[in-house]
Amino acid sequence: MLDWVQKIAFSDSSPLETQGMEHKFGFRRLQPKVMPHSHWHGHIEINYLFNCSADYLINGKKISVPEGRMLLFWASFPHQMTATYGEGDLVNVYVPLQAFLTWKLPNEFVSQLLHGEVLVSDSLYACDEQITQIWEKDLLKNNHMMTVQVINEIRGRIRRMSLENYSTYDLANKACNDNNAPTLSGLTHIQAMLRYIADNYDQKITIADVANSTGLHKNYAMKLFNRVMRVSIKQYINQLRLQHAQALLVDTENPVLNIALEAGFGSVSRFYDIFQREYNMSPLEFRRCVL
């Protein structure tokens, strides 16, 4: 259960060495280096550039990020660091998309990311480098409550960014106009489905409801979603519900029945079955483990 936050390994030959890890958080600190190939994965990715700057190629568009910035983008779009400047550190934080969408950030902020935009904070705070060092040390403790605290602080830092001034590279508009980009095929529909699910996962919704939100035939919507997100619509909805339920189990003393219903599960028995299958323990065992 404590390994649900893991360092995520990349290689030069594979977009994501550990395929299927898109539902896990990740963290790494390294000296920035040029990547020989683009890679992609399902996370929302945070890059901190401490005492260094870099050039990126993101979905075929070159951008330059100055020293001392924090940038955020949906890593489902192919991305590659093409040049680095300075001797500083690069910190990568990987946030599962399903967790990110339950954080209820401003709609415009989320929409820009899902349309391929790169968002860059206009400046870092003096404490940002120190807090990433604290996160790194805390994650190494392999303590679930401390890990939950780190995730809450990451969420708070992104929320602060969403409320303050940040810059963009106008990539969302360029992406929408670039009809030849194969990676964008269907992403507008995916964005609509993700937003619908994020807004309604705690209600009784069906795959047909999700498909109708974007005007696609149910079967095509299922195939498209599975191809891009590497998980079925049903599994994705359950992942969001489980993320919500986990937070309620940790942060509240609510009865399991109330948590099951609040997170969108139709019954407590269904909640128990899915939770047990995913985490190899019951919700009550999970609560006792982390308290």
Automatic annotation (TrEMBL):
Coiled coil: none
Keywords from the UniProt entry: DNA-binding, Transcription, Transcription regulation
Short name of one Pfam family: HTH_18
A GO molecular-function annotation: sequence-specific DNA binding
Keyword set includes Transport: no
Record's signal peptide: none
Protein name as catalogued: Transcriptional regulator, AraC family
Location of the HTH araC/xylS-type domain: 191-289
